[in-house]
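Researcher: I'd like a structural prediction for the single chain below. Treat it as a standalone chain; there are no partners to consider.
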Amino acid sequence: MRNMEKYQGIIPAFYACYDKEGAIHPEAVRALTQYFIDKGVRGLYVGGSSGECIYQSVAERECVLENVMAVAKGKLTIIAHVACNNTADSRRLAAHAESLGVDAIAAIPPIYFHLPDHAIARYWNDISDAAPNTDFVIYNIPQLAGVALSLPLLKEMLKNPRVVAVKNSSMPVQDIQMWRDEGAAVFNGPDEQLVSGLAMGAIGGIGGTYGAMPELYLKIYELFHAGQMERARQIQNECCRIIYKMCSAKGNMYAVIKAILVKQGGPDCGSVRLPLAPLFPGDEAVVDACVEMIQAAAAQYC
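Model: Treating it as a single chain, here is the predicted structure.
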């Protein structure tokens, strides 16, 4: 019987960690991992959008995961996103992730070319075959990948016994209900609708802004399962307001989040990798406003 309990809860998406020259910073990776352990989250989603995976080499992504696992193994549930835009590199990352003992691997569909369902299914199954002893999570994020998970594709993928869940980042919460009814566990992806996703049956959440304010998302999850829906909704509203403020900066949202982390006592993870935009003059005011909003909400609700 597969252990699904380890996937239930709040799982921040791990941020890319760079030094001042823009190279992967192993010490910062380890420090950020420990920071999340100390915050009490369920696990980490490593190498996804928040990890700037499409701007990193295969060797860099291996380095990141190695350093996460050096700290997190046995302490956090680790889901490693291994998709590259070709099957061979994806299989290499999948096999590497399994060798490190991750709990699951995950993959978006290949981007740019809009492949038919049968080609996407072969891509995902080929990746899964490279990690035959590891759970597989489908990552559905059509607004960025350009391809949406369909019911026929999900049904085909569920023939693979290693497929256990969908990380669903499409905006309609109806998708969570559809995937769940087909027999897949579902993670809520859009941070702005964690409460709604849980209400539709998501087993937990994986989110890119969770790391900036883990206390708030942990509280939402706790209150939801305690039946305190109104208070959970109030915190969700505060999280949304903070996200909107983050996105008001000229720099990329992840550059804002990394600056927030430092001001909150977290490790310095550097900036973002070009072509993502670093912070611009004036963005510091946005960072400061977000920190104040996060601290005020935590003081009120946590």
